[in-house]
């Protein structure tokens, strides 16, 4: 069972899950986000992924989490996102152990996570929020840098700190998410490739396999 809702914090989704009996490992696709996850009494960070992660949990395992989009998670944790890329890190390595322990022992983990994030909240970097929006819309990286008034080097550095990777990788990942959403709504793959901004269907297939590890058809069936 999986459910999600918008958090009271901007650019954040609150989600929960209970692993049913016989559930196979889950393929978690890169999405440009960072999650803080409470699982069965422990709390950890799922850093921004560059490729799919296959994750398995015991039946009955309970998970409560906040998913931070648009580069806002790193400021909450007080660490550059590229220090967390493709990593799963116990929260007590990043915050004071007593604070991490209070979260781990909370009766209402999701409320505790939102309170934790609220206490540490910083106004989102408007430039990085704009970068995510433009990348999601398929704007070329050079044009993004120009519109944000940043040099290519400065954009690269700011993106790595906010998202965990540079703007080109961010654009590839967000384009994958766009393509997957279209495919899951029943669009033919040839149409998906055009609508999501790929050169052709072969380009779509290569990118999905590189980032997700499996063909697109396997992700939508």
Strand content: 15-25%
Described by the principal axes of the CA atoms, the overall outline is: globular
Biggest sheet record: 6 strands, antiparallel
Overall mean pLDDT? 95
Uncertain spans: none
The helix fraction, in percent, is 40-55%
- Trace the largest sheet across and list its strands: 1-2-7-4-5-8
Elements, N to C (H/E): EEEEEEEHEHHHHHHHHH
Notes on the protein architecture:
Helices cover 44% and strands 18% of the residues. It is built from ten helices and eight strands. Helix 7 packs antiparallel against helix 8 and helix 7 packs across helix 9 (201-212).
Chart the SSEs and their pairings.
Elements lengths: L1 E5 L5 E7 L7 E3 L5 E6 L2 E5 L6 E3 L6 E7 L4 H5 L10 E3 L6 H8 L4 H11 L6 H11 L4 H8 L3 H12 L3 H18 L4 H7 L5 H12 L3 H5 L1
Antiparallel strand pairs: 1-2, 2-7, 3-6, 4-5, 4-7, 5-8
Produce a short descriptive summary.
The chain is built from ten helices and eight strands.
Properties at a glance:
221 residues, alpha+beta, 6-stranded antiparallel β-sheet, two-stranded antiparallel ribbon, 10 helices, 8 strands
